[in-house]
Write a structure and sequence with these properties.
AhpD-like, globular
Length: 147
């Protein structure tokens, strides 16, 4: 891989703004497991190896199981995720794939029913944040490091 721009070095204020979004997420009602599911699933969809590696490692530290991590890209066919987690995953997918029709009324309504407006907003901000990080990591070709 050819060396690419260092966003933090070139536009530190912009990088810091995204970092502040990430810090905000730690003060929300989202559990570490819920955040991990959002971060891993969006990173899988976006093909961000750097973020998949980082967030699966973090998820394990927070008690996520190997089985649930391995099955995350097929969560609809696995009975390992709660109703709330399934709503979060559906919203994550539709927001990440926004150009494929946006967030459906059904997905939004189910997420709002299960999460309430405030937690729904928190989930949406978590999805926005990881999609920002994915785009930075992929565009700058951040390397995956061995564990």
């Amino acid at each position: 891989m050819q060396k690419r721009i260092n966003i933090l070095k070139e536009v530190p204020k912009a990088y810091q703004a995204v970092s502040e979004l990430q810090k905000y997420l730690s003060s929300t009602s989202l559990t570490a497991i819920e955040k991990g599911l959002i971060e891993i699933r969006a990173s899988q969809i976006n093909g961000c190896a750097f973020c998949i590696n980082m967030h699966t490692t973090e998820a394990r530290k927070h008690g996520e199981t190997e089985q649930r991590i391995y099955l995350l890209n097929a969560w609809r066919e696995a009975d390992l995720y709660t109703e709330t987690e399934r709503a979060i995953l559906a919203l994550t997918e539709e927001m990440t794939l926004i150009s494929q029709g946006g967030v459906s009324d059904a997905t939004y309504a189910e997420a709002e029913r299960l999460l309430g407006e405030h937690k729904l907003a928190e989930v949406m901000m978590a999805v926005v944040t990881i999609n920002s990080w994915n785009r930075i990591a992929i565009s700058t070709q951040l390397p995956v490091t061995k564990a």
